[in-house]
Amino acid sequence: MDSKREQNLVIKGGTLLDALSGEQSRADIRIRDGKIAELGSNLPDDGDFVYDASDRLISMGWMDMHVHFREPGHEHKETINTGCKAAAFGGFTAVACMPNTDPPVHTRDVVEFIVKRGRETPVDVYPIACVSRDRAGKSLAEMADLKAGGAVAFSDDGSPVYDGGLMRHALEYASMLERPVINHMEELSLNVGGQMHEGAVSTRLGLAGIPGLAEEVMIARDILIAEFTGGPVHVAHISTARAVELVRNGKARGIPVTAEVCAHHFSLTDSEIERHAFDTHLKMHPPLRPASDVEAMKEGLKDGTIDAICTDHAPHASFEKEVEFIAAPFGILGLETAWGLIGRELIRPRVLSVVNAVAKITVAPRKILHIPLPELTPGNAANLTIFDAETTWIFEERHIHSKSRNTPFVGAEMVGKAHAIYNRGYLVQNLV
Q1: Which of 64, 124, 312, 388 is catalytic?
Q2: Tens-digit pLDDT profile for residues 117-144
Q3: Which among 151, 161, 236, 292 could disulfide-bond with 146, CB atoms 3.0 to 4.6 Å apart, if both were Cys?
């Protein structure tokens, strides 16, 4: 991966894809001082650096609205810098970081620390702050102050906002602040020590199960509270068919509910754990579900019930994953493989068009988080991704740019590739 400060360049021969209108058009892009100066045909290079984008698509920069970069506190797993390298390789120019760090992102100084660290990279880093102090679920964090420091949403991710009264007050404040509450949807009393999806496979393997009901009960509660308060609630990493139906019904009733799905939840089933003999890289939370739930994720994306695609990028050090399945932490990497899985599982089988798929990782996350769209028009700062949706390639260990290595996709076929990003005056090219 090659990252260079290129304030002035011409991107030639690409096809611009507008995720808002669905239109595609061939055009060169001239960038001056990091801003889009001109769009046109056969633009002269005028001595500027030339990037050949022939046979490639160009869209506004992609965004992953759900990542864990572990800094501060767990830098042995990932740092903001290494996480942004993984994001850039995956084609993302923006990420939103979850607050389950140490200390958690429950005070303005931690929000501002993450913002400052992010400014040192070519990727825009947006902090998501805690709903409750210390993520303890007992009292609200200073939500207005956290927003003033740069927080784009509120979540206790990794733990649900378990107290219904606290969730009500959080959504009331969220409504006033115009920022969503992103809840980890889990009724904890329905999951006691679960290790994977509760079903036939967990029974055969002798592992304690996590029922889909635990997710669904909490989603149902939060949709009702959102209806009562008018506050925007966002369903993190949705994973069951019934959960999708609950969101679909909530949207139909005009309730301010949105949802995201992780790439692994429309790509893998719980049977992979049996097939791969308790591979801890397949242990995640929510867990991998049966094929019927995987198909429901695809249908939810297709009909618009599920707004956004995310990764829940969750790095863990090798020594933490190289243990027995029941002792391993939940979570896998996701940034480097997201687009290849979208191409393989959604675009190639015609679940989503390329335009619709790109909208799920550009327009939707920014609209949910109230972040301005980086449109490809003259005068705007250049923030774009150069990619294709057809290249077939094998994901290998050398493609991992995270500090950790916990992915089950090494050796897997990918369809579609991110070739470069441009953001903040940096051109980052993926040369492998």
Answers
A1: 312
A2: 999 999 999 999 999 999 999 999 999 9
A3: 151
